[in-house]
Amino acid sequence: MAKYVETPLMKQYYSIKAKYPDALLLFRVGDFYETFGEDAIQTAQVLGIVLTKRRNGSASFVELAGFPHHSIDTYLPKLVRAGYRVAICDQLEDPKLTKKIVKRGVTELVTPGVSLNDNVLEQKENNFLAAVHFTEGISGISLLDISTGEFFAARGNKDYIDKLLQGFAPSEVIIQRQKKQSFLETFGDRFYLTFFDDWVFREEFGRDILLRHFKTASLKGFGIEELTEGIIAAGAAIHYLYETHHDKLDHITKIRRIDEGKYVWLDRFTIRNLELIHPLFPGGTALLDVLDKTDTPMGARLIRRWITLPLKEKQAIDERLNVVEFFINHPEITEQIRPEFKKLGDLERLISKVATRRINPRELKQLGRALQSVAQIQTICQESHHPVLEKIAEQLNPCSLLTNKLTTSLQEDPAVSVNKGSVIADGVSSELDELRKIAFSGKDYLVQIQQRESERTGIPSLKIGYNNVFGYYLEVTNTHKEKVPPEWHRKQTLTNSERYITEELKEYEQKILGAEDKIQILEQQLFDELVQYASTFIHPVQLDASLTATLDCLVSFASVSVENNYRKPQITNDYVLDIHAGRHPVIEKNLPHDEPYVANDIYLDNNKQQIIILTGPNMSGKSALLRQTALIVLMAQAGCYVPAEKAVIGITDKIFTRVGASDNISSGESTFMVEMNETASILNNISNRSLILLDEIGRGTSTYDGISIAWSIVEYLHNHPAYRAKVLFATHYHELNEMAAGLPRIRNFHISVKETGNKVIFLRKLKKGGSEHSFGIHVAEMAGMPQKVLKRAKELLQVLEKTHSHQELEEKLNQAPATQDFQLSFIQLDDPLLQQIKQDILNTDIDTLTPVEALMKLNEIKKLLKNIS
What is the CATH number of the domain that holds 786? Predict the structure, then answer.
């Protein structure tokens, strides 16, 4: 039996691949990155490149797919976005300097959550890597963006971890291997997961790796010394960076605690339901789309965080609002500062590239220009005479030494890569200047040689050329080859010409090529020194990026406030929410220009009007009113003006929403089950300052079940022994209007409509009192339902209205004690078929019924019952 022998290259490939079995291995071979075997099949499929085969010694064939090494920035992002970890294996030595197989090794492992590649990263979004120390009780979480150096840690229960995962939207989550199933059951399968064994999630390991990274004796300076679960998670994140060959981490200079006490609680349902960052449906508009008028990538990333983490400290909110007010009242300052923002570029990621030694000459030049803009922004803030802006000006550092160094050391428009030359400016290095003179004057001399020899020999078409085989040469067409002098040495014969070299050419060739090689080596050395010098300014440049991002967000808030006619809200520590002529910030932007938005007032407090029961027809605007109330509160506490004539906002610490259907059928849960899960989460987490928005609770079950659940929820929120949360409850159960008579802090409101003949006009205006009709059949008519269906619906509605007593229902709900179980007989139910069965039974003369007729009658009733089961 023949023995299979692999080629040395494939042996090397398999030995490296064995260390990264779960990653696609891009294997550098000459000028190409190649993939083999199963990796090649997957790569070809994702990238749409040709899949071929190559011979692997006597071990048959192996699949092959590759692309040129200079195309990695095009292809790598596609692989990462497709959900693959990619190991980049480079040649670690010059092939010219070895006679054996070139030494190779993995230089970087790129994953969805760990990337510094501009084409993988979204400019306006962070790319967070999350690590979760998942336990049954209090869990820990860390969030790290290697591209910006931002690093956060927190601890909390599962709901809080879920909220942070939703708000920060990490691209990758690290968890304990054996907790995979529990994690999926708790948080779902929407995250790209990476697993580590238990030993990585130990406190001693986490604390030790963080202390070594930050070079400190304790973590007290970061405010996380006692945050044990967060420390464990943060340690796992840093460990992962080392595992993925990212060891230049000087830009990760601090870790910040996300303090639950500083921000409004928004659970993941609320972030989704209110469409804060992403619309629920493709083509929709989110709140972020309306509020984000930032001019810098740093500002765009920060404003997302401000929207998902609104403040709940009055002083901090007022500080933001006052700066926004200043910018609105001083448009000339806004006009001065915004052009400087546009010149900053991505200052945060530029300095991260310096730290990781991944910055190119053009980007380093941009860093210098950005710091010049920082100096201008500092001057504008200093001259504003506004206390907050003056404080920011004091903290801004234009790093004039670095700016000057970059300005004088780099050419005005440097090449994108050092090996393409023209990077370092003239006058920086006398040796470099001398070499450039030799290289360029040498080429001038070659032209002189060409002209001189042409005149001397009488060969008018004489050319000087160059190739890699024998360097510079003189090319003579066959017509003139008889004129070639004897001291020229023929090197190559072509169809129409011949090529010659001379001693003089060889001498200048050595001079020129030697100078060009030395220029590249020297430019690389000088550029590396420049990057090293820039890396000593990481701290101040990161602070500049953070401060300019804050300014950018505040200017953005000012711009949208002026553009959309927003007003400054009044923030109080009371429990009153008083909105006059409030509007929905997103809906009003999407209305036709000639259609005004119908504004509405909302008032809620803890003593008189704690709960509003809101009734009205479908499509009348109940859901919009609920959402706009939450968005106005959220915008105010993020520090933005609000879409209202006036708004007095008592600090809200939690916003809960149960708005709209959100089926989770894929995980085996019905609409009603999801609705009950979300509602239970709200009822178990309320506080005195909570704002709760409930829309159509109970509609996922039968009418009586739904009314009973809705009634009991409202009753619970009204009679809660500890908290009086403010509640907006939109419902189509008009029976709930009866609650206002017995519970003092409940008020009934409805969205008005106007009936003209058989048509309904939605006025979208909030009015006191309950609504008696839902106009559901009118809405079905507007939707184009067939006339036959509409006619039958109207007939059934008349039957149901005659047999259903509102008073009877109210008596049952008010009189039935909580501890007493009662069952409604099926005769009382309001289905027309059951009414028919009732009449059938009442009209049957039992005294004259034979046993056979009784069985037949029972069978008829059974068939009817099957129709409604």
Answer: 3.40.50.300
